[in-house]
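The data layer described in this paper is built around a simple, fixed record for each protein. Such a record has a labelled line for the sequence and another for the backbone structure tokens. For reference, a complete record is included directly beneath this paragraph.
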Amino acid sequence: MKLPDKIEFNQKFAKYCRKLNKKKPIVITGDFNVAHQEIDLANPKENEGNAMFTHQERDWFGRFLKTGFYDSFRLLHPATRKYTWWTWRANARKRNIGWRIDYILISQDLKNKIQNAGILTEILGSDHCPIGIEIKNKEL
């Protein structure tokens, strides 16, 4: 059975990240277009099976994390409901009916160096908001 293009790309991307991680610690950031867990969206039951919340997408993301990468926000805030994207429809952002689909993933070597991970919901200008992390650096 042929995999959907997104999953096929994700598998190639994961392979590349694992290869790069053998050489140095890495930080991966971006819009992954998947809400990994139910806590990562406002209405999980209503959206189950919809794009960005399919079992296939979520399973891939979970398997990717198990290969040595960590969701920096969830690492520091395991029970916090905060979103990074809201549809333009139905005043979703104002009502905080959103999804957390933007991530900063870190490799194992950086896990204990994360000082802070945040979602800057107060910054407007897009249907997404910025995210960020602070990493301890012994060199400074």
About this structure: The mean pLDDT is 92. The chain is about 25% helix and 20% strand. Residues 33 and 53 are 9 Å apart (CA to CA). The two ends are 51 Å apart (CA to CA).
